[in-house]
Amino acid sequence: MKTRVITICCSASFYRQALEVQEDLQKRGFKVKIPHTANKMKKSGDFNVDHYKTWYKNPRDYAKKAKLMRQHFKKVVECDAILVLNYEKKGMQGYIGGNGLMEMALAFHVRKPIYILNPVFESSPLYEEILGMNPVFLNGDLKKI
Q1: Which of 44, 90, 96, 116 lies 20 to 30 Å (CA to CA) from residue 132?
Q2: How far apart (Å, rounded) are the C-alpha atoms in residues 141 and 20?
Q3: Which domain of life is it from (predicted)?
Q4: Considering its fold, how many domains does the chain have in total?
Q5: With contact defined as beta carbons under 8 Å apart, do 96 and 126 qualify?
């Protein structure tokens, strides 16, 4: 049986959790792809997102952001399914940001299953779009994948 490949998608603020989820899924036999910067954070031990989002201070670095986005989009296209990690951020439970929505839309377009770890609430400005992609909500239980 072929090993299932899952790509984790989430806010950079959740990369520490992404590494924990990666380990959990690998122990259960999945191959797991994570964002490039999450690997950099793991190697350096520095999980301060501001140290990696250099484009805020230097707009020329948006080319770096574009490259990172393209790298992760490729992982979304090549995997069997995506897992969106959505924890609390900025007072919003089940936070999914712009990049997460784009990655979900890409997965939806290429007909990949979309799993979302936690519920998304009507208060999210992206609620309608998220539900429109018909994701599977895991309600915190990774064993449902």
Answers
A1: 90
A2: 14
A3: Bacteria
A4: 1
A5: yes
Strand, helix or coil at 90? coil
Per DSSP, 46 falls in state: -
Model confidence, pTM: 0.95
Q: What is the pLDDT of residues 60-110, one digit of tens each?
A: 999 999 999 999 999 999 999 999 999 999 899 999 999 999 999 999 999
Contact 84/6 with Cβ under 8 angstroms? no
Classify the C-alpha dihedral 63-129-37-53 as positive or negative.
positive
The first and second tokens of residue 134, run together, are 């018909």
Q: 113 φ, ψ to 5°?
A: -60, 140
Neighbours of 13 (CB within 10 A): 15
The CATH number of residue 27's host domain is: 3.40.50
Q: Which of 87, 71, 75 is nearest to 16 (CA)?
A: 87
For residue 5 the two structure tokens come to 């490949």
Count CB neighbours of 21 within 10 A.
Answer: 19
* Assigned token pair, 96: 């999914």
Helix (H) or strand (E) holding 137: strand 136-137
Query: In this structure, what token pair is assigned to residue 37?
Result: 């910067």
Q: DSSP string covering 34-85, please?
A: --HHHHHHHHH----GGGT-GGGT-GGGHHHHHHHHHHHHHHHHHSSEEEEE
